[in-house]
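Why run this: before we spend reagent on co-expression, it is cheaper to look at a predicted model of the complex and decide which construct boundaries make sense. The entries below are exactly what would go into the expression plan.
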Amino acid sequence: MPEQSSGVAVAFADARLVAAKDLRVEWRSRVVLSQLVPFAILVLVLFGFALDPDRTVLERATPGLFWLAVLFSTVLALQRAFSVESADGVTDALRLSGLDPAGIFLGKAAGIAVQLLLLQVVLLAGVSLFYGATPHGPVLMVSTCLAATVGLASVGSIYGVLSAGLRVRDSLLPLLLLPILAPVLIAATQAFTAAYERTSGEGWRWFALLGVFACLYLAIGIFAFDQLLEES
Amino acid sequence: MTPEPVDPSGGRQTGNGAGLFRSHPEGTGSRGSRILGTIVLIATAAFLFVALVASPADTESENAMGDMVRIMYVHVPAAVACYLAFFVTAVGSIGYLWKRTEGWDLLAAASAEVGVVFTALTLVTGSIWGHIAWGTWWEWDARLTSTLVMFLVYIGYLALRSAIVDPVVRAKRSAIVGVVAFVNVPIVHYSVEWWRSLHQGPTISRFDPTIDGLKLFALLFGMVLGILVFLWLLMHRFRMQYAAARLEARGLDLALAERRAEGAPVSGFTGSTDATTEKEAVR
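The model came back. Tokens follow.
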């Protein structure tokens, strides 16, 4: 059906608009650059304090620590992204603007994904520098980062809207989000471990799990965002 | 003090709890739930006899658990009941998203509450079992770990419910969380299982006493009883949720009526009924 295909095109055009808007707001306020990136580096330093500057322990724990830092930063990034929205009633404005709900979801997720990817680049440099972990298997690592980021951003966008506008949002969001993201932490950590230990074959299985997770939550977001925007 | 006139209709309005089977008209009991409750009570007594006295201790299997095998008669039924409860929550959530009626939402909420209790029971009995079988209170076993994650997810679900005041917004948002949480259960389970199998051989065999005869009967009896207890609790929690929703609505109506009385003391102001019907329509 021609209408169907144009609908998908509209959704992607709307997604681009929303993502561009979010990233423009982000670029002008520079909260990610001035707060989130330093926070992530701080977490890496604190892990160092907690585990003693023993290079062997830190190097062995690098994949897990890297993804934990990403997870904590994701919570902060989401709180930031959705508090900007609810403070100015942007959610209502988006609803009134007649944009496609699926497009709004994809746009929000894309905006968050770009920020998370930037963060991961900095963190990867950080673990190489502080923990002395030399990255291997670039294809597996980049694929893992991409798949995990899509999963994080789509679950994050769903839960960000869910908890938007609540007084207890700041404490509720991590409680709702982190158990759902547990499989991402496990899979991404294992894939990175495989990459660092040069056993990439093992890692692709975990990448597949990340891919399934990302697709599933992208689908849930695309279908459920309509409902979520309606009443928030 | 003048004594209350005795109600000839069997005193159903008094709600003073006189008599075992008399209850408040707006209470959570009904004929059906009382019959079920009685059955559960009798069955529990019979179950305790079968599980604790009649069934033999485990002495035949290779890691003979002795009397400790009896924990399984509670552990396995509790686990079955908690999975059933979260399944009902998912069904209620989907039902709400489909039909948009209050009942589905209340069903999901009531079932999640009961499910969290059963999950806690599963975790505690599993941990006690682990202490006996493996010598540690906690083992990063796939099933135990994924049950813990599930427990936390549904605690989050209940926290979300209690954080939202507006019933329609609450129903919609928690319906989506109810579906997502259930979809998440198998993902967590398989990822934890893979994760464990990577570091060691297959997980320590949890439960392989030879199960036959009275032991099998005790286990199956426990499962049936667990499901009955779940249904009984679900009925009460559902009616509890329903009464709470009515109370909430009544409080709102009273407050609205008061404000209107303050604002428009003269003239026959009829907006109140309109607003009520409008609100009902929104529901």
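Chain B has one domain: 33-249. The helical segments of chain B are 31-54, 72-99, 102-133, 142-163, 167-199, 213-263, 271-282. Bring this page to Monday's planning discussion.
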